[in-house]
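The records we work with from here on pair a chain with its fold. Taken together, the tokens spell out the fold as the letters spell out the chain. The record below shows the convention in full.
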Amino acid sequence: MRKADPLMADARPAAGRAANAISTMRRWCNRLLLGCALTLTGVGLYQGSTALAAKQVKTLTVRGDVRHIDTEVIQARLTPRITDGFMAADLRDLRDELESLPWVYKVNTRRRWPAEIEVVLVEQRPLARWSDTGYLNHQGQFFAATQDGQYAHLPLLSGPDGAEGTLTRRYQMLTSQLEPEGPHNR
């Protein structure tokens, strides 16, 4: 039988301790690298978001098939509301501001990269005149607007406040019933 060498017996635990130390060192290096990566990512995100927040709107585009709305007036009205920057501009506030105007039916707003805010206007389409104070649109909603001669041919409806929708539906029902059917002879 072979006798155990006392020097070799001490070498095995020393090798295990060295391997254990290397493994611990690797774990700490991995943690350190992960911490550095997370810190650099956080700093990059912060700098990117502050740069994006500071980015100014370069172009305010107003589009739409409009006859009663002056797009230059709309741009002048919206310009003070977008001075905070591209990402800070409140699109819902812009939409609400414009939809409060008489001839504006609907507004779509969106950001377009890199520095444009686009506003698309849909104008009211009057279906009938309402007393002498404005018009009713296709949904029976009243909108206050000065009477325009080009709409003098529209029917004149009037009634108590809150009856606009009911009267519009009745008017639409009557006009559909009074439409001629088939080809008509003259």
